[in-house]
Amino acid sequence: EIEGDLRRVQPIDFSSVDGTEVRVGSRVLLQGGGGPRTLTILGPWESDPEQSVISYESELAVKLLAKGPGDVVDVQGDEMTIEKIEPANS
pLDDT tens for residues 8-31? Predict the structure, then answer.
């Protein structure tokens, strides 16, 4: 099973993150009623929710992917606006 996972692994292309939409490899600044929140969207093996790094497979990341600055997303019952998108490696 691990060998199958390793064959599917693709490196994240941080150069494709241009700030116009959330993609894998994005760091996203959200603003809402609970204050600012920054999330980084990476692959499942890099996921560390306690450090605000989430997998692109997670429910929250799925809501964020392909959204852009100004879009509003429901984050655990709070409406949050995407303020900024940048490469996660910046």
Answer: 777 777 777 889 999 999 999 999
